[in-house]
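sorry for the late reply, my laptop died twice this morning and i had to redo everyting from scratch. anyway the thing you sent over, i finally got around to it. pasting the sequence first so we're on the same page, its 114 residues, then the predicted structure underneath. double check i copied it right bc i was rushing
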Amino acid sequence: MEAKVLSVISKPMVERIIEATCLYFGITEDVLKQKNAGRDIVYYRKACWTIIREETSMSYGRIAARFGFTDHKNVMVFVDEMQAHRKIYPPTSHDLSKIKTISLNIDAVINREQ
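ok and here's the structure:
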C-alpha cells in the first residue's frame, strides 16, 4: 500500500487569503492594492481585509501597511462594514465564504488550474 503525501502549507495565511481573493475575483495583487480604485476593486479589498482580520491575528495597522496604506482607520471601517453586510446581503456572505474556502485549499485550486 502506497502512503499518501499531504502537501504542506507553505505560505502564511495572509498571503493565501490575498492570493485566494485575487483568484476569486480574477485580479492581480497590484490591482487589489490600487489606492484610486473603482468601486469593484474597493469591494474586493474590503473582502480581503475582512477575511485577513477574521482568520489571522494581524492588527488593523499591519493590514493597512501590507496594502500600502498608512491609516488603519479605513481598515477598521471597511471590516465593520463588510461584517454588517454579510448579515444583510447574501452575495457578500457568499463571496467571503468562497474566498475563505479557496484560501484554505489554495494549493489544490492552483494545481487544478495548471
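The CA atoms of residues 2 and 31 lie 44 Å apart.
thats about all i looked at so far, will dig more tmrw
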